[in-house]
Amino acid sequence: MNFLPIIQQNAPISMQIVRGFRSSAALSSVQSGRYKITPKRDRPLTYEMANPPHFIAHRKAWNSWNTSNLRGELRTAQCITEDMFIRKFMTGTWHSLVLSEVIIKRQFNHIRIAALIKQGISARKMYFLLGYTEEMLSYWLQCPVTLELQTVADPKDVIFKYI
Amino acid sequence: MQHLKRSINSFTFLKRSKTWSYQRFCATSSESNEKIEIPNYIPRSPTSILRALSQTVGFDRTAAHFKYHDDPYLIPLSNIGKRSFALAQESGRKSAKWIRQQHSNLFQHKEADPPIEAFMPTKIYTAESEVNTSDLESLIEHSQVTDAILVYTLLKNKNIEIPSNLQLSFLELICYHNCEEPLDEDLIEERWFRQSERLKERPRKTWKDNDLAEQLYHEIEPKDSKAHSCIIRGMCKYYQAEKAWAIFQNCLSNNIQLDVHAFNSILNVVMLIKESAELRWQLILELLTHMKNQQISPNLGTMNACLNTISNMGVKNAKDYATSILTEFKKIGIEPSLSSWYYVLRTFCNNRGPVSHVLVDIMAEIEGKEFEIRDIKDTFFFVTAMDVCKNHLFDLNLAKRVDALLHHGENFNLIGDSFKESTYYRHYFSLLVQTEPIEVFMQEYYDQLVPHVYIPEPMVMEEILKGVEVSGQIEHIPLLWSHMICFDQIYRENLLNAIVRIMIQNKPDISIKSQEKLPEQFGAIAYDIWSKIEEKNELRSKPMIWSGKLLGDILKLLCRINDMEKATKIMDKLANDQQKILGEPDFTAMQDFVKLCILKKQPSKALQCLQYCSSIGFNETRDLAKLICHGFTLDENHMKKLAYFVGSDVIEEVEREKQTALSENLKQ
């Protein structure tokens, strides 16, 4: 139900001036980076997912490491879109194998990409994908790209809790 | 930790800071009048700082090579793994490159500034492309042979004139590559693992006759000495000796000055031009005299070409020829490279000939030096030297000196490729295992180098097992077995027989501390052998045929640890699959099994064993039956069976024996 017209009608003029500021619980709730609890409590979360964003730099670290967000630095927008591209490329190329967030670290012109990978395919195939991903991304981003993967025998190993 | 310590020590400023003191600081500041001497500028390359950094970190033998991903699942543990992982990664690279080339229109963006060519797709040329001479120039520079040939023909068809120096460099390109696209420069793994180098040992004509290179050579007018030299070098490189020789002679008779490389190439193929050793030597001398007459100063290549030809002669005089060449070139101040020594080794150390200690002299000459590659065959030296140490001289100390030289400075770069590396280590290891005491070998060499540097081939593994057998140091067996599993060597019967034989013949002594756990481990190994092979046999189309002896030995080892359950499995296999098993087991194994049955009170199993023995027809079956009668109190049913297998007289005999034993007991 919309109470606004009623309030406006009954409120004195001075109150109408401060209109626009709302501090109700519903509006101040934040959602991004948080996961809803399921009725059966069977949604698996990794450690990374289990910690909401305000724990960054306390309990967990950033997913993208670069300096382009600092004041006066270059390529802010490019950096973000590139990171999105890298993440899409990784999850698509390593299809249903990536168990964690894709961490992207930039040092000088060098991009290091880290992730946890399920041991779902043979080591030889993994090497093929490694070579392919590194080369393809370095053609696209035109800088050296290194993959720093860790494999996980059982996908359940990365689950921190169920909610 | 060791690395860290070493790297800290290598920073000299840290060392100095230890001795730094206030007094010294004051002393230096008071002598400010002293003239400051600025040291000379040392020229640095773009990579010198990287080199300096890498020098602070030693080589870690316990880690896999850095080309492999640092993750337990991705670290290769066998030779096949090493090869296939590295090549798989490179094939991924290649497919990315292929995609970039197929969709080159999508990869035209320019992120880097200045643009980096290596990330860009190469320009695609078709029969319709508009081309000019600068295209050809850049293609030659990047040695893209196929494209260069295409552009060249396009230019010809359009009657665009090509400057003579460009034509010459094009000729050089196609002569060098024999009109074929070379292997990409960044495919290092493919270079490392490919085997064609071995085939090149035997010269075989691969030059493409009457192809573009020759046509172009005939077209060039007027031909200068470079064009002649170029075609001769190309032909010699791909062993088209006859044509090269014809052109060469033509040039000589027309008084055309050739360069030193053309002479070197001809010297390299002398063995294809002349038949006998005597004639070849004559030709070498003749060619060298020609060089002298034309006032061409010889270089390292000349010496190596001469030595190469001499090493292929295979006659007694060859040694004298080689020595004379070496002294002659020493006089004019040409320092031999490793490949020269390789040729010398090949000349002197013939396995059929007398033993020659020339390697000792060579080592005295080159020990402690650092080498860079100066000749393409430089990479053959170390593997040949080790071969000589092992097969010709059988000299451990010399082998260690060669190994020290290989690991001195950056000499390891000259090991060549994976094939040469593993050959080198194969010789080294089999020499070590035959000469060093086994505990020294295991501690100082095996544990250090296996599996990341070198993985012993089955042949070497057999020698190591033999070494263990001779010394009786059976505590190494569990480690060797686990390595054999990793290296995928457990399906080789000779190795299996060897390891089982060692375990049977050397019964572990529990009183010795290092052997305390061995009986259980041996039993586990024996059962491992059994289960691994059974597992594999189910999958393989061509199963391994069990030998009765091997099964009997496994059974024996299992009986030693009193493992009834596992021993029964083996016995079942022996009894049920009799016709599939080759040969028969040792009778002692049967005895051990029956004793185990008695211990575990399993008369029916013992009878099954008896049945098997009687069907095989062992002479000692009756003794076994007696053993069973003494060991168990058999019921009616079992008695019947026993009588059926060996005859009822055995039971009577045993009864009698029991009676007498009883009466003797009573008497006492």
Automatic annotation (TrEMBL), chain A:
InterPro entries: Ribosomal_uS3m (IPR026146). The keyword Transmembrane helix does not apply. GO terms for biological process: translation. Keywords: Mitochondrion, Ribonucleoprotein, Ribosomal protein, Transit peptide. Pfam families: MRP-S24. It is found in: Mitochondrion. This is Mitochondrial ribosomal protein S24. The lineage of its organism: Eukaryota, Metazoa, Ecdysozoa, Arthropoda, Hexapoda.
UniProtKB/TrEMBL annotation, chain B:
InterPro entries: PPR_rpt, PTCD3, Rib_mS39_PPR, TPR-like_helical_dom_sf. One of its GO terms (molecular function) is rRNA binding. Gene3D superfamilies: Tetratricopeptide repeat domain. Its main location: mitochondrion. One of its GO terms (cellular component) is mitochondrion. The keyword Nucleotide-binding does not apply. Keywords: Mitochondrion, Repeat, Ribonucleoprotein, Ribosomal protein, RNA-binding, rRNA-binding, Transit peptide, Translation regulation. It holds the Pfam family PPR_3. It is found in: Mitochondrion. It comes from the Eukaryota. GO terms for biological process: mitochondrial translation; regulation of translation. Belongs to the mitochondrion-specific ribosomal protein mS39 family. This is Small ribosomal subunit protein mS39. It comes from Polypedilum vanderplanki (Sleeping chironomid midge).
